[in-house]
Amino acid sequence: MVHIVEAMPTFTREEIEHLGDLARIALTDEETARLQGELNVIAESINKVQEVAGDDVPPTANPVPLEAYLRPDEAVTPLTQEEALAGAPRSEAGMFVAPRILGEE
């Protein structure tokens, strides 16, 4: 198994400020300190997961298997133009007529 990140380093104050500059976000001293702590907790969590994720653990994007519940793809005859327009409040020349929402140009 290939680890994407071997060991996450501790984020320095300068790195947090640099990230803020890259994102064009002005960070106060309190925000920088808070983000530094939060990012370091995230990095430590990644390290813990990587310690226990051995070669026998398959990679996964979601811990709960997800299934797409779709109806079977079966060919059917589509509506005719007349059937599609039957419930329209107004139609003209085989098309739906919608009210104008923009003024005269």
UniProtKB/TrEMBL annotation:
What biological processes does GO assign it? glutaminyl-tRNAGln biosynthesis via transamidation; regulation of translational fidelity; translation
Write down the top EC class of this protein.
ligase
The family database entries (Pfam families) matched by this protein are listed as: GatC
Say if the entry is tagged with keyword tRNA-binding: no
What keyword terms does UniProt attach to this protein? ATP-binding, Ligase, Nucleotide-binding, Protein biosynthesis, Transferase
> What Gene3D superfamilies is this protein classified in?
Glu-tRNAGln amidotransferase C subunit, N-terminal domain (1.10.20.60)
Q: Which domain of life is it from?
A: Bacteria
Outline the subunit composition. Heterotrimer of A, B and C subunits.
Give a short account of what the protein does: Allows the formation of correctly charged Asn-tRNA(Asn) or Gln-tRNA(Gln) through the transamidation of misacylated Asp-tRNA(Asn) or Glu-tRNA(Gln) in organisms which lack either or both of asparaginyl-tRNA or glutaminyl-tRNA synthetases. The reaction takes place in the presence of glutamine and ATP through an activated phospho-Asp-tRNA(Asn) or phospho-Glu-tRNA(Gln).
Q: Which family does it belong to?
A: Belongs to the GatC family.
Q: Which HAMAP family match?
A: GatC
Q: Which PANTHER family does the UniProt entry name for this protein? A: GLUTAMYL-TRNA(GLN) AMIDOTRANSFERASE SUBUNIT C, MITOCHONDRIAL (PTHR15004:SF0)
Protein name in UniProt: Aspartyl/glutamyl-tRNA(Asn/Gln) amidotransferase subunit C
Organism annotation: Bifidobacterium subtile
